[in-house]
Amino acid sequence: PGGAGYCVTFTRRGVAADFNVNPRSKNCAAVKCLIEDNIYWKGLDTHVGDNIAFEDNIVNNCRISIDLTPGNSGFGPINCRIINNQVNGTFIGSGIRVSGATEVVGEAARNNIVAYNIIKNVGLPGFINSAAIVLQNTENSVVANNIIEECRDVGIWTRLGNKNFVIEGNSIRDIIVTGK
């Protein structure tokens, strides 16, 4: 209790910019996993990954269910896929988040796909980046054909510095507005 924990994470050895010293995790996948009850942090995660696939997983009751993130490195994840996952929360945090480093200090998350996922019961009022799907500092992202149901406040949130993205064919229903 009280600390951050990861169920499955693909990361780097350190945050130094030299990818020869600290290379990206590349060509990795978590497929058909059952991830449950990590209320303190993340279910599936990559820091700065390249060609990471999170596919056909079930993720229940995690603070952030699936996360593509720069960590503290200043480099965004690239060419990753979050496809055909089932995410079910208990309103403790975000469903799926794709985030690059800020435009000021690093690179965007590029060429990532979030598609054919079912996301229910996520979103935490007052928790930054909280929505069923969050895009933040991305380029060329695709968010398509997801089903979002009974989430708090925001279905798909394009937050800060996104460029050239497509949001298409998603079904969003029964958003719960906090305080109502």
Could you write a compact summary of the structure shown?
With 180 residues, the chain is mainly beta. Helix content is 0%, strand content 44%. It is built from no helices and 18 strands.
What are the main properties of this structure?
180 residues; mainly beta; ten-stranded parallel beta sheet; six-stranded parallel beta sheet; 18 strands
Notes on the protein architecture:
- By secondary structure, the chain is an all-beta fold.
- Helix content is 0%, strand content 44%.
- It contains no helices and 18 strands.
- The chain has strands at 6-10, 29-31, 34-47, 53-55, 58-69, 81-83, 86-88, 94-99, 109-110, 113-115, 118-120, 133-136, 138-139, 142-144, 147-149, 156-159, 166-168, 171-173.
- The strands form three sheets. Strands 1, 3, 5, 7, 8, 11, 12, 15, 16 and 18 form a ten-stranded parallel beta sheet that branches.
- It starts with 5 loop residues before the first strand and ends in a 7-residue tail after the last strand.
